[in-house]
Amino acid sequence: MEREGGMKQASKQPLLWGAIALIIAGGAFFAWRALAPSDLGEDFASGNGRIEATELDVATKLPGRVTELLVDEGDFIQAGQVLAQMDTQVLQAQLDQAQAQVRQAENAKLTAAALVAQRESEKATANAVVAQREAEVTAIQKRFARTETLVKRNAMPQQQLDDDRAALQSAQAALAASRSQVISADAGIAAARSQVIEAQSTIEAAKAGTERLAADIRDSQLKAPRGGRVQYRVAQVGEVLPAGGKLLNLVDLSDVYMTFFLPAPQAGRVRLGDEVRLVIDALPEYVIPAKVSYVASVAQFTPKSVETAREREKLMFRVKARIDPELLRKHMDYVKTGVPGMAYLRVTPDVEWPARLQVKVPQ
Length: 363
Description:
This protein is 48% helix and 25% strand. By secondary structure, it is of the alpha+beta class. Helix 2 (89-152) packs antiparallel against helix 3. The radius of gyration is 46 Å and the shape is elongated. It starts with a helix and ends in a 17-residue tail after the last strand.
């Protein structure tokens, strides 16, 4: 029995070592494919990567319940297209209340304006009374002067002079009172005009409230910020989401690119706008044109200290090759993200592309 167990254990060891050797060989192959120099010569560089695209989330601005989802995963969408609808019953009720407050404030302004007109009319009446009192004072002053002269000549009794003096003082007091009425009317006008200003401010505040609520209602209808394709439905109809809750994940198919890495000697020769050819594993018969849109300014896989030339060769820089948006629009059905492939970059501008990397796209 012990001999049989030993024989079984010995037979398993070669299989184990063979599996380990296979894994190491596979890893070495993929590492060689990723970092091996291009077979196109020094005028070209290459690297492997995956097709990527700009992703964005469609989220709620306000908390609420999802009432409609108008798209499904995989659907193509256009910029401005309505994608989902949130419940707006509470917002609509608040908007109706705010609109009623606007009307109330407008009525208050009309009332204040009418009060201003009334105060101005009272001032005009007070001014007329002042003019009347001034005329009376002038007439009584003249009569008093004549009476005073006649009394000095003993042509009239002293009592008449006293009566005229009393009448003059009474007229002067009435004139002062009427002038006070004018001042009071001015104060009333100023107060009424302040009520008009206050009512106008209330109107503006109420209108601002209605505009805010109307904007919230519009924002409850979620629209596509740009064209592309629906990648995920994160929420479903009937779910209650918080502010900023995600409903959909979109892929902008007008901004598609491949990211790959180049060693420092090759990355140093790359310029923005350099031509790139992409060959996708899923469609190896096509060669897709692209251009360099980004070169990292900081190396990846950087050793802690770079002292020797061999260590400096380990520095890898990230490069992004962007596909022409017009070409993407023509072949939207072929665009798939996450697909691996190879990027070939021409670092010498005047060199011709080899025949196998001439542009070939779907018709």
